[in-house]
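P.,

For your records, the input lines for the assembly:
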Amino acid sequence: MSAIAAEYEVAVVGAGPAGLAAASLCARAGLSTVLLDEQPAPGGQIYRGIGATPVKDRAILGADYWHGVKLIDEFLSSGAHYVPDASVWSLTRELEIGVATGGGSTLTRASSVILATGALERPLPIPGWTLPGVMTVGAAQALLKTAGLLPRGHTVLAGTGPLLWLLASQYLAAGLTVDAILDTTPHENRSRALPHLPGFLFSPYFRKGVKLLQAVRGKVPIVPGVSELRAEGSGKVESISFRTPDGGGRTLPADTLLLHQGVVPNVNLAMSVGVEHAWHDTQLCWTPRLDPNGGTTVPGVLIAGDGAGIAGAQAAAWRGVLAGMAVAQALQPGKKIPAVKLARTAVEQFMRGRKFLDALYRPAKAFRQPTGDTIVCRCEEVTACEIVDTVALGCTGPNQMKAFLRCGMGPCQGRMCGLTVTELIAKARGVPPREVGYFNIRAPVKPITVGELAALPKTGDAVNAVVRIP
Amino acid sequence: MFRRLHENAGAVVRLSVDGRDVDAREGDTVAAAMLAAGFTSCRATPATGAPRAPFCMMGACFDCLVTIDGVGNRQGCMVTVRDGMAVATQRGKRDLGR
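Structure tokens returned:
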């Protein structure tokens, strides 16, 4: 890998479908393009480990996974400068990017920056979710993709959303017995999703969804309408207890408990540079304010893929194309860009199908707004009732609250607690989440050592700003 | 606790975790190697000393923090294993100086 240059025309952050598509397009348009990615190989989370996975039987991870090969090949032959193992820890309004690569940090600059930082799993804060043996469904899938790992012993999946079913089908194809799927999807979601059914039927999601449910139903015990999940155990998870719709309580043994309730945009880098975000009432998360090409409220910064609002892998690649086209157009005004219409139509088709999924898999309030001693902030071990109590002390939002409790100030920087905190404070104040806001996110958005920071090249002005004058 | 779908896939990479030899596979992350080797937790939290294990496997949750070759607070799920790597679980706060 060659060293990161001081300047590029385009810098793309994240090597998932959106970033790969955007970087390929820009590099092929003749722009000097760098793709910075935190993982050791391209693919993002969806195509993670695709070049080196020990799971060679294609039936296990499925066609949607292997779809990524083409995207990655196109990227690798595009002429873009690919930098793996690179954590972007800062981005300024001047489009200066701080990157940590293994031992050291470096600064680079770009005329345009496309953020393709993807999604995170929405937290599912239940009692006991910090116990060893409890992981996210996405984590278990990453272990399967990258290392061919399967859980031993009793395995229970709990929550809601397509990924839950996808992992179950992949586990079944790999020969693993899944003890149960505890489905927390609220019953009333069905009628709320119904108006969006036509769009879904004509979207590419429909056939996939049916296939997925067929693959799992009848092979794994499914408990619908589950509430009051509680992971229990001493030192590690040993069982999962829950309530069924008839009011009865049940307990199942669990050596591995995998939780999931959808994915949300990974906003930290975009928020740190000051991109305006708004609360999305359907997707229940913060999404950036964007123009149709992904342009943000910060000049020169675009967002593509799930970071722009959840729409899935294929829509992400198309949104990467749109952002790439917009950048190429802006940097090379004379040059003819291929039809934008095709990409826009594709994105719209996926978005239509998405409305049904958003309504059907909207997580239940009780699993977004925990109560009592349930830990919300995993880093600082702050509970739901502690957060709610700060509202009575006069805290109107997450930034006042964190000064009292350190909630959100641990190493994850709010990634695991932020949405829960916003919703809890909103509920306690009786106002909508948009009035409560989110943590102020500041660089560095990934941890770097003081030594790395100190070793960065400094300007004379920067030194003069802090030097002691005798 | 996890097992490998293909026991013999990939070259063996030997590292140590808390002084114990662990055979990982080429391309494993430190966190994956520890889960496959049967480690139930990788750290105890600075706040209450509660045990924690890898949770998100994508660099977001920081629950897989370990000391790698003398450097504390490394994300085990983001570091690929190398032969001879010395990993230590973290108990409470990271020690100053590492």
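Two observations worth noting. The CA atoms of residues 15 and 21 of chain B lie 6 Å apart. Chain B has a mean pLDDT of 93.

Regards
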